[in-house]
Design a protein that fits this description.
The protein is an alpha/beta fold. The protein has two domains: 2-131, P-loop containing nucleotide triphosphate hydrolases (Rossmann fold), CATH 3.40.50; 141-406, Winged helix-like DNA-binding domain superfamily/Winged helix DNA-binding domain (Arc Repressor Mutant, subunit A, Orthogonal Bundle). The protein is built from 19 helices and 14 strands. It has helices spanning 8-20, 34-44, 57-62, 66-70, 88-96, 117-122, 137-140, 145-151, 155-159, 163-184, 191-203, 211-218, 222-234, 263-270, 275-279, 284-300, 343-351, 381-384, 392-406; strands spanning 23-27, 49-53, 75-80, 103-109, 127-131, 207-208, 238-241, 257-260, 307-311, 317-324, 327-334, 356-361, 367-370, 373-377. The strands form three sheets. The chain has a six-stranded mixed sheet with strand order 9-10-11-12-14-13. A five-stranded parallel sheet has the order 2-3-4-1-5, covered by helices on one side. A three-stranded antiparallel sheet has the order 6-8-7. A hairpin with a 2-residue loop joins β10 (317-324) and β11. α10 (163-184) crosses α14. The longest helix is centred in the middle third of the chain and has 22 residues, at 163-184.
Length: 407
């Protein structure tokens, strides 16, 4: 099973960035595999390498005077858990500007650049970021799609011996995250209260955010719940999918949709520990939508700032809109095995001028629904959906390769 932890696409991407930038930041949730990825890079690095772990008291002491500790180092310098010491960024900037020295910095952190704002700004123009998500469907294989959905993408949760062991790991992760990690990012909220808030978010999963409604239910100001949500977003626990606005003669939804990013964490917060429980849970459709959304975003290679949802006050909506330059790709998620073309889809096609609309569904067959509209089962997204912006010729070549393979 250890081979499932290999992340070849991520390794290649980070190696490419290290050739192009003096500093690379690998960011992602706690326990998502950043250190494992970095060790794979170190193992194949041609030249010296040095590793600092800021959760180690000894390493933290070595970096008490960061310039003294770092300036003589050559090769690859890895600093793990860098969010514990944002003051390091200024020193890294000074050393990164010394182009006479052959040295690259690999910074690993569990908070977004927004949460590390002060330090990250000092490295502007010198650093490239790579977000490490949970294990992708490509990493684990379509045959394990059900397990990946139930258990989520944290490697230890996915690889656990049983579903019960996976649930135990996720519960411990949630507890540690609330009691130890969140306070480190400046959110001084009792862990039980934040657990209750997080559980409420789980019940809003795949819905439009309503801060005022949640604030009333939680008994605090709407600005307070927005701050809670933003911290969960900036620590990679929550995805806020922003709304897309067109110059249309229609009133459009202005609030983001909210998703818990890891399906396994969502299920733990909902009290779901097995596929049987999940199949009968009232949030099963929302859970499947969020899981499918992650698979599709990864397959489309959507970059930050390219993914949206769209909705009107009259009820027309599109679950996912990816915009890159002049290209617009829409995606609808339907857990049914026999999706139909709906008035809402027709409205999205026309109003948003979509180049393509995919209806990702829970069945097994690929089939057209209309001009520019194709129904694609989630199990075949990896072979059918091309990255956004891929030319028609490349798309047809990709489809031919997969057809030949299937034959």
């Amino acid at each position: 099973m250890a081979k499932l932890l290999d992340r070849p696409a991520d390794v290649v991407r980070v190696k490419t960035l290290l050739r192009e930038f003096p500093v690379v930041g690998v960011l992602g949730a706690r326990q998502v595999g950043k250190s494992t990825l970095a060790r794979q890079l170190v193992a194949t690095w041609k030249g010296p390498s040095t590793w600092f772990d800021l959760e180690s008291a000894a390493d933290a002491a070595r970096l008490a005077d960061p310039l003294l500790a770092l300036r003589e180092l050559r090769g690859l310098v890895v600093i793990d858990e860098v969010h514990h010491a944002p003051n390091l960024f200024n020193t890294v900037r000074v050393l990164a500007d010394d182009t006479a020295v052959k040295r690259r910095f690999l910074l690993l952190g569990s908070a977004s650049p927004e949460l590390l704002r002060q330090g990250a700004e000092s490295l502007a123009g010198r650093i490239a970021y790579h977000e490490l998500t949970g294990l992708r469907l490509q990493d684990v294989g379509v045959a394990r799609l059900g397990r990946r959905w139930l258990r989520g993408g944290f490697p230890r949760a996915f690889l656990a011996r049983t579903d019960a062991a996976s649930a135990e790991w996720r519960e411990a992760f949630i507890r540690t995250f609330l009691e130890r990690d969140i306070p480190q990012f400046g959110l001084r909220v009792p862990a039980p209260a934040l657990r209750r808030f997080w559980s409420m978010i789980a019940h809003y999963h795949a819905q439009t955010w309503n801060a005022s409604e949640l604030a009333r239910a939680f008994g605090v100001a709407h600005t307070t719940v927005q701050r809670y949500l933003d911290v969960l977003t900036e620590t990679f626990m929550v995805r806020q999918l922003p709304p897309w606005h067109e110059n249309l003669a229609k009133r459009q939804v202005r609030a983001p949709k909210v998703y818990l990013r890891d399906a396994g964490v969502l299920h733990s917060l909902l009290g779901v520990t097995s596929i049987a429980q999940l199949d009968s849970h009232p949030k099963v459709g929302a859970s499947w939508e969020g899981f499918a959304l992650d698979v599709v975003l990864d397959q489309l290679q959507a970059r930050p700032g390219e993914a949206y949802f769209w909705g009107t006050q009259a009820g027309a909506e599109l679950d996912l809109l990816v915009v890159r330059g002049e290209t617009r790709v829409g995606v609808e998620f339907k857990r049914t095995s026999s999706p139909k073309l709906t008035p809402s889809m027709r409205s999205a096609l026309a109003d948003l001028r979509l180049d393509r609309l995919y209806v990702v569904h829970g069945g097994t067959e690929v089939f057209p629904l209309a001009d520019r509209v194709e129904a694609v089962p989630l199990t075949r997204v990896l072979e059918v959906l091309p990255p956004v912006g891929e030319s028609g010729r490349a798309r047809r070549a990709t489809r031919r390769r997969h057809s030949d393979h299937d034959a």
